[in-house]
Amino acid sequence: MKILKSHTELHVFQCAFRSSMEIFSLSKSFPKEEVFSLTSRSVSANISEAFRKRRYEKAFVAKLSDSEAEAAETQVWLQYSFECGYLPKSLYQQIYQDYEKIIGMLVVMILHPDKWSLR
């Protein structure tokens, strides 16, 4: 396994960042009162915090768990956006599935923190 120097090298971080930027871009066309609830960037932010805490397994897992919860919350906001007519079905489904993959990667990391540990 390659030694990672930065959280930005994590595939899960790259996916989360790319997905949040896609949502941000799409949300520019939403009504003003809806923009802020959907543009959360906390999934990738929590991944970066977890990466820096990986020498402490419990702290690492806790931040990954926070990130998983934020990703699930983002899925709910996506569903609201679709149901409110702000997103076409195909785009909603694609981004929702992107977050399913992100959650899956996070769960694998949570279940196997030793693979990421600095110890």
Supply database-style keywords:
119 residues; mainly alpha; de novo design (two linked rop proteins); 5 helices; elongated
> CATH topology, anyone?
de novo design (two linked rop proteins)
| Spans of at least 5 consecutive residues with low confidence | none
Report the sheet-strand fraction: under 5%
**Could you state the CATH homologous superfamily?**
23S rRNA-intervening sequence
Helical fraction: over 70%
Quote the average pLDDT: 90
Question: Could you write a compact summary of the structure shown?
Answer:
The chain is mostly helical and 119 residues long. The protein has helices spanning 11-27, 32-38, 42-52, 57-83, 89-111.
Structure notes:
This protein has 119 residues and is mostly helical. It has one domain: 23S rRNA-intervening sequence (de novo design (two linked rop proteins), Up-down Bundle). It contains five helices and no strands. Helix 4 runs antiparallel to helix 5. The two termini are 14 Å apart.
How is the topology of this model organized?
Layout: H1 11-27, H2 32-38, H3 42-52, H4 57-83, H5 89-111
Helix pairs in contact: 1-3, 1-5, 3-4, 4-5
